[in-house]
Amino acid sequence: MALPDPLTATTSPGPTSNGALYRRLLREAVVPYAGRIVAAAVCMVAVALSTAALAYLMDPVVNQVFVARNADLLWPVGLAVFATFAVKGVAAYGQSMIMTRVGQNVLCDLQNRLFRHLLQMDLAFFAAHRTGTLISRLTTDIAAMRVAVSTALTGLGREALSIVFLVAVMFYQDWLLATVAFVAFPATVIPITTLGKRLRRVTANTQAQTGALMTLIEQSLAGIRLVKAYRMEDYEAARARALTTSIRDTVIKAERVKAVASPLMETLGGVAVTIVIVYGGWRVINGDTTAGAFFSFITALLTAYRPMKALANANASINEGLAGAERLFAVLDTPPGLAEKPGAPALAVIRGQVRFENVAFAYDEGLAALKGVTFTAPAGKTTALVGPSGAGKTTILNLIPRFYDVTSGVITIDGQNIADVTLPSLRAAVALVSQDVVLFDDTVRANIRYGRPEADDAAIEEAACAAGAHDFIRALPEGYDTIVGERGQALSGGQRQRIAIARALLKDAPILLLDEATSALDAETERQVQTALDRLKQGRTTLVIAHRLSTVASADQICVIDQGRIVETGDHRALMASGGIYARLHALQFSPGIAAD
Ligand code: ADP
To answer: How far is residue 223's CA from residue 203's CA, in Å, rounded to a whole number?
Structure first.
């Protein structure tokens, strides 16, 4: 399945323009906070006005106090300066607090939206995207956006407005001088925008590589036993080193671009200031303007320098943030692969009969995993799926809860096409116990409750009893409140399986999909797990990928799968008697000393 990969979207500059990205960010994320933004804007105007007022006040300070030595105006002018500072301080505080809140809320919303969206994606999406990359969308990219959004929202407007007002002061005091100063401006702006573009490219690379590094680390740590067993430590370390070095070099490159930006501005600014001082001084000496007007002008010019520098830096961090936003939106825009039909009814399970009619399926186009599979799993009975590894057994199970959609053919439950009913009702009807038992790093109780979130403690313990898990759970240090550890490592294989069985019992779904564990359990544990499974299967339509002779022999029906097709169907006795593939497979798989696949 061809999915747009957000990772590729990072390495090539996406088709979305900065302007479009901005508008989208504003529309989707910022608009809900419009009220608070208006309040912040009021503060923003106050800050900018008082900044310009301070520059303007230099005129009376110099002309009245220093040149004219007017004692009556000393205090009023002094107090006016103080009052302006006070207004500026209060407004600056108000503005940055409001905008910080808005910025953090925007990011919090986006993070939640992205995670929800990820949870809704189908399995094909997760097969196509590396976990590390997805994690980096939620962490690194969001962090870059956090910086960008807070810079953009808190500082940008304020700095821009300050510049506007300061420029107004400059023109008011001496329009000729102001015109001269502005000849130098375009010269500073052009190099800054080019730098910004370069930075965005470099940052995109860093983030893609960081994603790859996270995936690598996650995989090597998750498979640490394998790494050690095959002595692949050096190999893995070398792979990580290649990535970290490359990230280091890219980051240094990005920092170099950033480091060039401000000295460059400063030097260019210096040129402008020199021109202004020489030309302005000459005008004051000639009596074309007053000293007060000139000092007010030069104060405005120098004050404008800081906001201009801030704007230049903001450009850089906003570009980083926009790169993050672009990748984030790429994920958000990937539609969940499986769709419900509009107005689909809920699945009504009456007896729980599952039927495959001429079902074909391919994970990747052209490579058929199932071809023309037709069979009926009778209600309340156990159907065992057997066959060599890669035959398509897991695929059959995956199709029933619609983890994937069939390529052609129909799957029905009690006569209703599963593609025509709502997903929640379908998934509620199916319980899955897989061979790689998944436990979350939470309490035993919470892990069992996953089967039915509204279940009370009594129901949980009842399910645990039925699964033969109650006794060992009670013996754990904190009983049902023991944390099972990451992936349930604190428990043995048999214990994990019984917790998974308890979870399925609690769910009490009419259809049970079972992937029997291949790993050998000791005889006693095996017996306990088997008893629990037998109880779980009772009265449910069960489809089991069988690896044990006892499971196959006791199944009501056996489907033998080979290369994506059902090649034989019948019960154990009938199939043995016919002497076909099953009989051969049976001799191979279940003869002593040869492990199942
Ligand atoms: P079994 O459970 O019988 O061992 P599977 O149903 O897992 O077999 O696999 C059937 C075929 O589909 C195999 O050829 C396998 O390589 C392929 N396959 C399984 N899962 C995927 C997947 N996620 N993406 C692509 N191909 C897959």
So the answer is: 30
